[in-house]
Task: structure prediction
Amino acid sequence: MKTLIFIFFLSFPCILWGQQPNRIKGSLIDSCHNPVKGASIVLMNRADSSQITWMVCKENIFELEYKDTGKPLLLHVSAIGYAGKHIKIDPTHLNLGEIVMMPWALNIDEVTISVKKPIVHNVERGRDQYTIPEWMGLQAYNLSSLLSLIPGLILNNENIEIAGIGKPIYILNGTNPRMGELENLNPRDIEKVTIARMPSSKFGPNAVGIIYIETKKQWHDYTRIRLKNQFKYTNVTNNQSSLFFSYKKNKLSHYLGYSFDYDPEKYDLRYGYETNIPEEDIHYSMFTSTDMYEKGKNHNLTYSTKYQINANSFVDLLYYFSMKNILADNLAHTDFFDEDQPDLSSHTLTDMKYKLHLANIRYDNTFDGKDRLTFSISCMLVDDKRDEALKEEALQTESTRMAYNQAYKNKDVGLSLDYTHTFEGLDIETGVSYGKLWTQSDMNYYTENNSQKSTSRTENTTAYLNIDHAIGKFHYQIGLRGEYEYRHAENDSYKKNHSFYFLPSAGMSYRVNDDLNFMLYYRRITTQPTERQLNTNVSYMNSYLYFTGNPLLKPTVSHTFMTRWAFPCHLSLTCNYSYDKNSIFQLTVNDKDDPNILVDTYENLKKSQELNLTLAWDRTFRFYYLNLNASYSQSFAKVPFVNQEVKYSKPAYSFYAMHSITLYEDIKLNILGSYTTTREYATTYSKESYSASVQLQMLLLKKRLNVLIAGNSLLNAGNIYQETRYKHTLMINKSNFHRCGITIGITYNFNNYIDEEKRKESEIIKRAL
Result:
């Protein structure tokens, strides 16, 4: 009994110590060792950022009590005028000592604008990485306006392109963005942008470059509302309105976005056709003038919910709905020359209704910060209906009327599994995907009691393996992608089609430093014709011109070589060469049964080559950013025309310049201009073109309101001019798309954190969070 009492008294202090809460201690100072007072201290779980306890310390010394749960913890320290700090808590070392607080990043960036580079740049594995400062995300009106200020990227008619490469695809936080995600992305949330000019075998044949976007991690619970409205006037007036709502509470976050677009368009289409068939003694010319007016309304709804299982894994669900209604009223007049055909006037009314439903569920898990597994399932339904009524009046003949209905229904189901393994500078990417597409198209001619129906089923299976290895300053990547496709169509042209292709790729890069590096890349691509290009349904423009697909199209095989040299002083040279077999082009040919009727369809060109050289230079001065690009391009192709072969090999030169001027703190003026000389590409000859635009971006109302005032294509070449020669037809295009216009847009951000009771207790913690 005495022994038990003795053991109890010995263990009693330990029991009391185990019941006592842990205490985290420390003191806050700035870089000059001055005390930092009025800071907020928040202790949270490292896995889901849920709060455990918090305090506001009036002095620079703090002591925070908590009960140990055995889970990894994270301490967030913030103070007005200083950047927030996250500290991992070790239960065995709770005395943190002196914590040095740095001035707030926004203030640093404002100084950076005047004396330092606004973007931090480094090169890793042949990729250019740019860390986006906070002021840059705040000033950007949308994603395009932010990316246009990054070296190596250019803005071409509201589309972002990689200089010397082309239009990229995007990767958001390491995964493929679902439908609607990029449009709803807030530039303020972007932390890093990476440009990859050597696509791995993970990406399909249409990927010429990749832009990786990483967003900032959200540690706290929040409720955010973002309003956006954009007014645009060219020769018609359109408007875009959007509302975005996001909410996070502990491990669960929700996002809801809605947008409405009123988008009328008015074009002047002018086409001339000359047909010459010496064997049949046929020669005539036809000129078509069309005044095209479309009034479109588009509703888009996006909802997604995300559950953060732990710090390394999550599961999310997305639903996207889009509904479009387009009413078109087209007036066309056709004149004939050198042919005994009466002139023709036609009036076409089109009512198109389009609905799309998309559901996607995704699971993502990162193991030990090295390996990553992503699994995704998606289902998409498309319902496209179009009613057209074509009324024609010909001189000296009776009027005719044609009415028909087109209906397309698509159902697409897809699965994908991607896995990445990393160890000692070696990344191994592998994955498989499967997709199945059902397509049903119906065309009913009311006036002729005739109907065309077709049903097709397409199955795609893809597997890839990519090895990416960095050895010191040297880096190489080797990839192999296999694509199998099975098509089954119920028509007379083709019924079953099996195809299997290997798409190899290889690249290497050598980095001396961030300003001097080199890369070399090769890729073999096989591209299958699309369902639209193969579909034989007929759509009439008038009695002498109709559109249809070509079921005899062959796949396109391309060999692409790319090299890029980056030099000091922000100078780079990119060279691209491609050799294509059976390239697919949209051309105008004569109908086989009646040469007096023209067919707008698709054809294969046996061989074509293209060479591009791009020289890029950018420089950031005190209040001024300049981005210059000069390109040389030359196409090599032989096209059959009448009884000869026409060679297309005339080189072209193009120039691009962007000037970004900081007028006053949060007011920025951008001036963009481009010019392209006459050029020949494959089957087309184009005359010179030029364009100049101006953008004024302002950040107002305590950095919550973004305003954009832009003059689009204020200087432009007006009507385009293109000549296309193929077989027996010469087509001349003199259309005008009226790109000159004015855009006025505003975006307002409401930022409101959930914990109202704690915010009411302290105004300081409200601002700090």
